[in-house]
Design a protein that fits this description.
This protein has 403 residues and is α+β, with helices and mostly antiparallel strands. It contains 12 helices and 16 strands. The protein starts with a helix and ends with a helix.
Length: 403
């Protein structure tokens, strides 16, 4: 068993609930802080200094060379009953890279840092990408009173671990970084299908979330003639299928209706209102720019044809983020040098890299996910696949931080 594989197993035992229960290390939990302490011990063992900033981001800092640091990172928090690779593999492969390069006597021309960003998942407080946003200097002051399911506020949760919510702005340290590299499991099936060792991410998907309400007329299911009905669910059903068609005929676009409800909800009542959520995504800025208007146009046409009143409100919106071409090229060269097969691909999921990318050159490397499964105890990447990813990452560090 190699060191990276052993580290993955050791870390999974922290917050691990056994084979079937997966790993649970939610933001600001005892388990997550125990994982930080474990990481600090690994850092100390290879001679790099551990630190935790005011936003709960854990660091190992290799104080080499001069100027801003090359930062390798991901996250150690998980969703409840998550897998042992999401986030963890990015941090542990970074640890593996630093350990290997130091052992090999590599002398970087700048500091090399490793970070585990706090609360990437956002499950507990609805505060995804918290640590990377704090690191990038985003204003998070409005989040203090967010509550978890038990009624604990974020401010209280931080306090319980010895952190002061009002001190978060001191974590803004992006000016000390020259670039960011993140290795992550793909969380999708593309690499497993193509058989490639690594994916080099070209851009991180942009998404628009909409809440849609269609109103018709609730009425007697038996006495109202079919031609006179204003059936809101019929409109909703058409929306589901037409959005799917829209996504199928546009490369790289996904569309999802994940929540739907009907009023008043009676077996013998024509549905008077239908509410649904729409999530549409594209990593291509040009395509992304048209998605919102296209989806709204489609909904308006359906409402008109079905004689329904339409109300659409925006739930969320995130622009697609292109990643740095110099780092993309470095990953490609690194893969070649390591004899790894690589393909360029977009990321359909959000990652800390998207927060840093608008400010510093950032790149992401994917390794395959078995069955494309993630956020699940069945999440799996073979030790061999992890090792190849780590080697490509190490090689990219030597290309970007070499003399
Ligand atoms: Zn992740």
């Amino acid at each position: 068993m190699d060191e990276l594989e052993r580290d993955l197993l050791d870390l999974a035992a922290i917050g691990g609930a056994g084979e079937s229960g997966g790993v649970t290390r939610v933001a600001w939990s005892e388990g997550l802080l125990a994982a930080y302490a474990w990481l600090a011990r690994q850092g100390a063992a290879i001679g790099v200094d551990p630190a935790i900033d005011t936003a709960g981001n854990a660091f190992l800092r290799w104080p080499a060379g001069d100027g801003p640091a090359l930062l390798i990172g991901s996250h150690l928090d998980t969703v409840p009953h998550g897998g042992r690779f999401d986030g963890a593999l990015g941090v542990l492969s970074g640890l593996d890279v630093i350990r290997t390069l130091r052992r090999d006597g590599f002398a970087p021309r700048c500091p090399v840092w490793l970070t585990a960003f706090m609360d990437e998942e956002g499950t507990r407080f609805g505060t995804a990408l918290f640590g990377s946003r704090a690191f990038a200097g985003a204003d998070l002051s409005g989040l203090a009173e967010r509550r978890d399911a038990a009624g604990v506020t974020l401010r209280e949760a931080m306090q319980a671990r010895g952190f002061d919510f009002d001190a978060i702005p001191a974590a803004a340290q992006l000016d000390r970084v020259r670039g960011y590299l993140e290795l992550h499991i793909e969380q999708g099936p593309v690499l497993e299908h193509s058989g490639d060792d690594v994916g080099i991410v070209t851009s991180i998907v942009g998404l628009v979330g909409l809440h849609v309400r269609l109103e018709g007329q609730a009425n007697h299911a038996g006495t109202t003639p079919m031609t006179l009905r204003r059936d809101a669910l019929a409109g909703g059903a058409r929306a589901v299928l037409e959005l799917r068609e829209l996504a199928r005929r546009t490369a790289g676009v996904t569309a999802n209706v994940g929540v739907i409800s009907v009023e008043p909800g009676g077996k013998n009542v024509v549905p008077g209102a239908c509410e649904l959520t729409v999530d549409i995504r594209s990593a291509d800025p040009g395509v992304y720019g048209t998605l919102d208007a296209t989806a709204r146009g489609l909904l308006e046409r359906i409402a008109r044809e079905e004689a329904l009143e339409l109300t659409v409100s925006e739930l969320y919106r995130l622009e697609p983020v292109p990643l740095d071409t110099t780092i993309i090229d470095a990953f490609e060269r690194a893969a070649e040098l390591e004899g790894a097969t690589a393909r360029r691909m977009p990321s359909g999921a959000g990652h800390d890299a998207q927060i840093l990318a608008p400010h510093v050159p950032a790149g992401m490397l994917f390794v395959p996910s078995r069955g494309g499964i993630s956020h699940n105890p069945a999440e799996y990447t073979t030790p061999g696949q992890c090792a190849i990813g780590s080697r490509v990452l190490a090689r990219a560090v030597t290309l970007l931080a070499g003399a």
